[in-house]
Amino acid sequence: MTDPLLDVRGLTTSFETGQGRLTAVDDITFQIEEGEVFGVVGESGSGKSVTALSVMRLLDDAGTVEADEVRFKGTDLLSVSESEMRSIRGGEISMIFQDPMTSLNPVMTIGEQIAEVVRHHGDVGERTGFWSEMRRKYVTGTSEGSRSWQRAVELLETVGIPEPEKRATEYPHQLSGGMRQRVVIAQALAGDPSLIIADEPTTALDVSIEAQILNEILELSEEFGISVLLITHDLGVVRETCDRVAVMYASEFMETGHVNDIFEDPHHPYTEGLLASIPRIADEREWLSVIEGTVPDLIDKPSGCPFRDRCDYAFELCDRPLVEYEIEGSALETHTVRCHRENEHVEVDDSGHVESVPDEAVAALERRIEAESARDADGGVSPTADASARADGGSRPSPAADAENGGDHGEY
Amino acid sequence: MSSRFDTEGGRIFGVRTDLVEQFVNTVRRDLKAKIGVVIVTLFLLAAIFAPELAPYDPMAQDFAPLQAPALSSETPLGTDSFGRDLLSRLMYGARISLGVGLGAVLFGAITGVLLGLVAGFYGGWVDDLLMRSVDVMWAFPWLLIAIMLVSIFGQGVWNVIIAVGFAYIDDFARITRGEVLSIREEEYMLAAESVGLGDLEIIFEEVFPNTVAPIIVQFTVLVARAMLAEATLSFLGLGVKPSTPTWGSLLGQGRDFITQAWWISILPGVLIMITVLGINLFGDALRDAFDVREVDSE
Predict the structure, then answer these.
(1) So which residues are the signal peptide here (chain B) (predicted)?
(2) Contact status of B16 with chain A (Cβ, < 8 Å)
(3) Which DSSP category does B155 fall into?
(4) Which class in CATH covers the domain with range A6-16+23-242?
(5) For residue A332, what pLDDT band results from cuts at 50, 70 and 90?
């Protein structure tokens, strides 16, 4: 298997607040392959956007980003210089934001806004020094004969804007919401990126436009071979568009897998709850099902499963730190779940409730937790810890190892 | 819907003319803007061409002192206590008054806007450092600072411009910083960063054009105050040389004769008022013309 386009391991982002440390993204791991559409779905405040901004290094100073690895095409994004990062932003990875009403500068014509990105990341042979840009902006304007302007017009045409030459000279407020989002897409395409991060690109649009815009993003990404990281809270959108999906809850990825696996065979109680709450036309229920309770406070978040207080299946292992379990028999891609019900020693009845937790289960879990904390402590430097963590990759610890560590209790 | 923008691509010698055309179109539709433009143009021309247009030497004491204005006489606006032609003195005075007024505010605006942009954009200790320094300036009455600067650097037009303009840095810095703080939270700032623009480009291409409207308003208000400030300094003998006519010094000198010869102080006063009015109307027109967001509301 070739290296993934974007390889994120153990990404943790936290903010120092007056009340304490807020963990917005907690130890998440995911890979995006070339040409793939990867969805991150979760409710508001679950940390989806912060994940995207952390990868792009766009958080302000209040946020601390830590990770074992954030690799994009082999480049470690967390260690490159700010100027290299600037050429990656827009050139290699570009973003589409939620609200097209506010993500375009109101006092620049849309042509200028796109041409600017073309000049910075494309090979059009136009100077982009500070004074050249100043002169262009305040004195000469972007010449309509210039290659960057023509490319901007082409891009507008590509994203389906009628009369692109005329539209390019207009200001954002002269366009409708859907048109503006198309402009934002054109801007995102302007640097020929390999990855587009779309942060709820259709949330601010009405439903009839939503489908158009999503189609536009998908068709263009397919046409130009661009991977997409699609952040959304809409399961319907995920099902329509994504190849793989991660379900995010309270800053953690609860379940990751192929979209069919997640929808047909959800293993995490939260995913089940989400799917159950989708209204269906054939529904006979009088009330939609809801997940009782509220999202836990992310400030000074306790370890253990963040969903346990709302979970119907909660049992005594739920306050132990979460580890990743791989679901066997998943059809297409690795399907991983962070729920201790998947521990092979835990006995689960037909309704999914836990019947008994034998000692081996506790031991196996503690073995796993220890392996992970050893990996964290070494920061992935130690070859053995690193290798075991990778080989581990979510698989279950061997029973032999469990037996050895059987009597090891306590620190968690 | 966008007839005002159909002039796209207009360039003279490679310089974009769309902004000029926007301005011309705004003025055409707006009576107040027309008045403002006429007043400002007229006064600027009178000031620039004073040596050619003024009927007499402003320093020559050729006439009977304290003659009342009479359109039929040789001195249509009367004479001062030394028998100098008031019309000529007012025309020469316009050079200093307008020059100091515009120059001082321009100096204050450029410095203050730069400070405000940097402070607001970077925030944190940069913001604290710059804005607290500006606050220190606020702690002193502007007149004290002006007197200090003039006494250090001596009298003269340029020094008066700096001395008066210095007091306006904090106004511009504060207004700009406030605007930048709110603009910085807009999503298009994040979007600009996400396409790989550097800080300088974001500040001057994305942020600055969005702050222009309140800065223009402040500019026009302060031009009036700067002209009065120049008058104050001249009145205290700290402005330009006492014999040089400026509207402020004319007004001050005429004060002694206000009971016998009202015109000596009233006429420059009226001119200051009209100029201020004209510049305010002009500024409104500029703001309307360049605020692209207001186009649709018509």
Answers:
(1) none
(2) yes
(3) S
(4) alpha beta
(5) low
